[in-house]
Design a protein that fits this description.
mainly beta; seven-stranded antiparallel β-sheet; three-stranded antiparallel β-sheet; 2 helices; about 5% helix; about 45% strand; binds zinc ion
Length: about 150
């Protein structure tokens, strides 16, 4: 093969563009954007991920918001490889006013147009990852993963 066709699809250098959580303690800030149209043209996916390593403050710092045109998947992934289903935290994540509480590694599907948040940490015992994937949104402004568009503009 004389040409690498898919090399351009491999993102090894994140963009650090989500800096809504400046001053929030206990979490990686800014988070790492690993997929967007800026990183992989025409991917039409927005994916950002960051570590939470102690009780965030302020808590909540992700407030109620919605993505009018895009479905979202929010993953919370425990950081203990010996017990990968254990989140190492307890989180209350409200969807359309319904509080969902979990302490396991999880994926949550949020349909377009449905309000979600606040996200409230009840406890943190181990570092864990929080990942948001906004399907069909190609950039941060379209994706607005934490509902911070007003703070960005
Ligand atoms: Zn969201």
């Amino acid at each position: 093969m004389d040409k690498l066709i898919y090399q351009k699809n491999l993102v090894v250098k994140p963009r650090y563009e989500i800096s809504n959580w400046k001053g929030v303690r206990g979490r990686q800030e800014p988070t790492m954007t690993l997929m967007s149209n800026e990183l992989v043209p025409e991917s039409n996916i927005y994916l950002e991920v960051g570590w939470i390593y102690e009780m965030p403050a302020p808590n909540p710092h992700i407030h109620e918001h919605k993505h009018e045109n895009y479905n979202e998947i929010v993953l919370h992934i425990g950081g203990d490889p010996r017990n990968p289903e254990d989140l190492g935290a307890e989180i209350e994540f409200s969807v359309d006013g319904e509080p969902l509480t979990f302490d396991k590694t999880s994926a949550l599907f949020i349909p377009a147009g449905v309000n979600h948040g606040p996200v409230i940490w009840k406890k943190v015992t181990k570092p864990h990852l929080q990942m948001a994937i906004v399907l069909g949104a190609g950039n941060m402004i379209e994706a607005d993963p934490g509902g911070h568009k007003e703070e960005l503009l």
